[in-house]
Amino acid sequence: MAKKQKAAEQETTVTPRNYTEELEQKVKDRTRELTAMVKKLVETNLSLEYQMHETRLADAQAKKNYALYVAIARYFPKVMIVVIDKKHEIVFLDGEELRKIGLDKEDVEGMAIEEVKNFSAEWKKQMIACARLTFQGGHHGYEIKYRTSSYKVNTMPLDEGLAMFIFTNVTEQKNTERKMLRALNKERELSELKSRFVSMASHEFRTPLSTILSAANLIARQNEPGKEDKRLKNVDRIKSSVKNLVDILNEFLSIGRLEEGELHMKKEVFDLIEFMKIIVQELQHVQKPDQQVRLTADREVLQVNLDKQFTRNVFLNLLSNALKYSPSHKPVDVIIATEGPALTVTIKDQGIGIPEDEQQNLFNLFFRARNVTNIEGTGLGLPIVKKYIELMHGKITFESKIEQGSTFTISLPLDQNNDEENSTDRR
Fold first, then answer.
1. Residue 146: in which H helix or E strand, if any?
2. pTM value?
3. Cα–Cα distance, 364 to 385 (Å, whole number)
4. For the structural domain made of 76-169, what CATH number should be given?
5. For domain 265-413, which architecture applies?
6. Where are the alpha helices (DSSP H) in 260-380?
7. Phi and psi (nearest 5°) for 329?
8. Which of 167, 256, 326, 406 is the most exposed place for a label (fewest CB within 10 A)?
């Protein structure tokens, strides 16, 4: 019994040395834990401080960029600045052009491009496509229209994963370019016109001038009695040649005055049927043997209120062409008809016709079809006719087939009293 009690006391007894070692171990473990915690806390504080520093830098950069956007938008005229992120959402919007496009800065900022109602489908498509390229790096540009305005768009990538679009209104520049281009084309046309006239004049003037010279030489040698008829015949040749030259010059001068807008209508009331009969009589001297003009109308008297000189020039030219390009045994028909407030005059021949592939050029200055090169002409008549008809607020159409003839139809108003564009000045 005593032995058992003594053994139990020995088992429960802790020596001072064991206790000290155990305590020291606990202290070391706790120290390590505290050291780890302190280290972690320091690291956390450092990370937080770094993050705060980076946030301050980012905020400062953002403010700097915002100031830059505002400066560009405010101090550059006719500009709109749009900054978008990679979600294609608008993070900044400003500029003089906002009002013209109908955008409100407060309403649109934060909105996706696809949601902006004022942007057309094409506008949105181009913006998104260009934004994708811009986010990949580099600058891009394109042009787009909004209603009547034209915009030059330039893009650039920004450091914060943003893309800036600068919309510049270039409408005035575009209009100036168009005006300059029209002026350049006009100058080119004038140069070509002069060149064509010189070419035409050298060709068309040669024949009548040669005729005049030849007739004058013959007259000089026909002074003997009994040769009066021959002299008169040569005088007539001279008169006819001079008339041809005057007609050519008048045609060219008419084109110039028409192009410059110097000719205006001078209305008067007259009987078109009787007027056409007079024109037919005037052209008897150019008719070929067995060639006739058949005039038909749906009434005996037809009062019109048109420019008499314009009307004469139109039908004199068209009818003389029909006679010139028709064979001697084929008639030329002139048909006058009315329908409501308008009249139509149809001039139909059975002549050589106009090649189909050249018909689109018929009213161009100096144009002459390839099948009339051996027949005299300047290529000025039909352009002048078209201008006169347009001045009288009418229109001209035609149909033609090779070796089957041509048909020209002129539509004109019977009375132009109410036309505000009419003028009594022909200058």
1. strand 140-146
2. 0.50
3. 11
4. 3.30.450.20
5. 2-Layer Sandwich (3.30)
6. 272-282, 308-324
7. -95, 5
8. 256
